[in-house]
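Sequence in, structure out.
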Amino acid sequence: MSRGDGDVVYDVAPLSDLPDPGLLGVSLPSGERVCLIRRGGRVTALRDECTHQGMPLSAGELHDDGTVECPWHGARFDGATGEPRRGPAEVPVATFDVRVEGDRVLVVPPSGSRIR
């Protein structure tokens, strides 16, 4: 959906479905998966795909330091920036801009996303 400001924004989930702290995997209309991250009231989002072997990050664990650990080989990514913090992954995960409006979580796909 377009918001009139040039961004395409997708309403992906009620905020109440996202535990604090916690992870939630959601899908965009294109089928692209997004891992929502809530910690201390802040919501961020990463592409729901580990850059090492493609496992869904939403099936992993959110640590107290804000990193998301892939359940397959233990790679960790910064939940805000997508930067790898522990191998075996070496490539960052794409991030999404997130907006919370009322009880709705909205995401903006990153530039270079598969969404057209």
